[in-house]
Amino acid sequence: MTLYEGEKGSTLLVLRMALPVQTERRLEVLGMLEGTRIVVVNRKKRGAMIVKIRGTRFAMGQSITRHIEVKEV
Amino acid sequence: MNTKELTIGFVGNPNCGKTTLFNAYTGANLKVANWPGVTVEKKEGAMRLHDETYRLVDLPGTYSLTSYTMEEMVTRQYILSDDVDVIVDVADASALERNLYLTLQLMELGKPVVLALNMMDIVQERGMEIDLHRLPEMLGIPCVPVSARKKTGLEILIHTVAHHQDKAQGEKIIHHHDLEKSQHEGVEEHHKRYAMVYSDEIEDKIDEIGERLLKKYPEETNENLRWYAIKILENDQEIKERFSLDFSDILDKDYEKEIINQKFGFIEEVIAECVANRTKKVESTDRTDRILTHPVLGLPIFLLIMACVFFLTFTVGDWLKGYFEVALEWVTETTTQGLFAMGVGEMLISLITDGILAGVGGILTFLPNIFILFLALAFLEDSGYMARVAYVMDGIMGRIGLSGRAFLPMLLGFGCTVPAVMASRVLENRRDRMKTILITPFMSCSARLPIYVLFSELFFGDKAMIAAFSMYVLGLVLAILAAFVLRILDKSEEGDMLLIELPEYKTPNAHTIRIYVWEKVKDYLSKAGTTIFVASIVMWLIMNLGLHGFTTDMNQSFGAIIGKVLVPVFAPIGLGYWQIVLALISGIAAKEVVVSSCSVLFGIGNVTTQAGMANLSELLGQMGFGPLNAYALMVFCLLYVPCMAAVATIKKETESWRLTGIMAVFQLVIAWVMAFLIFQIGSLMR
Fold first, then answer.
1. What pLDDT does B174 receive?
2. N or C: which end of chain A has fewer CB within 10 A?
3. Which among A69, A56, A73, A71 has a CA at the least distance from the CA of A16?
């Protein structure tokens, strides 16, 4: 499944990212790596979501979340 | 006594409280400028402690030292320069895991680093514990707990900096548990010298690159050899270009990702050993966010907050503005009388009162509105709410091809175009930034309000409010339409990716807010003292000079000549009167000048009073200028080139005269076309 489909309150494991290298690097630098556990704090029905990575919240648009493959844990 | 002043560079992640810490040391006593060649702000201050002077430089907030954004480039270039003696890495101790990544990068630079663990008060509040003995052991750098808000630990931090200035990094504890397995040559030595030791494969590569660098560039790379080698291994374009060596045989795959991974691997080790009780309490931020970023309620709440901001700006601001106007009137009168008594020539008196005081003073009367607006914005910003707006607005903005972040500058545009255009800096993508800058001037700024008020009251009677309000709606609609058209024209899909940190909510800090607002007010005052000052003199000159020198008959002035030349252009939009044309031209200095120019041009003293209005209305009526002309005028004023200060800001932010020119022409064309449509269609319907 993709991060975009993640439900509010769920803890997810990042499997793979298929984004432009620059965006991927930006996410990695924030600590979002393949194998990192993240939490979906809040989300809109369709669109952006708030994700907690290593204790910090980030708002992410669907253009990013649709390209991140995750798995529920 | 040591006479050499020590330069301390403050580096840290965004939202780590770095600015608050910096302000706690320097107060309002700081120099704000731009870094050479870029629009990134540079703040510098000084402080004294025990007879020593320290120079403090606040670097832009950044998550890493790659070369992807302007902020990162500026930061690392400055740190690498000889200018900085010690780096203070400010970290949010309550989010140490994320902050340590930058710390590890800074340590690799080879300069003395001191880690300031900021927000220790919050750490304690949450019942978290940080092992302050083990942390410096593992990192090999001093770690000083501070709280910028509570002002604790400040002196100790500077002491540590002073004592640490010449020291290379201390001896480190061996942290890699699988050391025995390592085959890398000199691995023991590595672990003594560097906190962050990579896998054998990467260490081998670093050594190999380092050897080549040292051979060809012994001087340049002497100090930071390891850092340069790591950057080259990360395939950093800027560093690679600096050395004309071929590393393609070593860079056989993408090592950057692996390096980031291993850094976070080490960070996890550090966190596991040094931080206890990490997620004990349910954080209050999550509770607040449940309401403020609610999927349904988020938007109405935001609109309500903004309504409050505007209500305060206009009611309280206008109330204070009244006093400023009275004061200005008094100053003008006194000056006139004083100058007259001193026997100063009529021409000079006219220049000072009609030119400078009317122009500069008129702008100064808007200071209360500006002050209140920025005070409110400072509150929203410092409390942590501002970033949430980007999230709340993301869906709506997405439809016009912009990310939620682009909404912040547009919002500010209702106040004043200048700070709004500057606020577009928050957008990382240049194309989005240009797009936002292009549509922001359509948001009707507060300077245009006097024009609407005057002309709608003159011509629309009890429907005046509706006429004035329709301008705001029209501006907003055109902004959205323009963005939409640009989206269709612009084929490239990528860009507007929303990615923004949502900081913890906190009580706004009075000190931070004071400095923020004071900076904006200072900007505004200096604008009045420079741009508007010059513009006022120029306006006065072209209205009082003619082909035969100084003239009191405005009909003979250069202004009238220019106005008359342009009349044919403005006739089709119902504005073919040289006085109106001239007033519009003068409005480029500042939009509110359109109103004051009208009063000067039509020779009416107090144009905003009942009698003055009746007078102007009659004069205009005689010229054949009716309600339709007035509406066309309002539309034209809403849309045509923003004031000079805004254009100058656009030039500064876009760094391109060409783009600035295109935008100005685009706005003129739109204004003309819209006014043309309204005037012509209106004429047909009559």
1. 55
2. C
3. A69
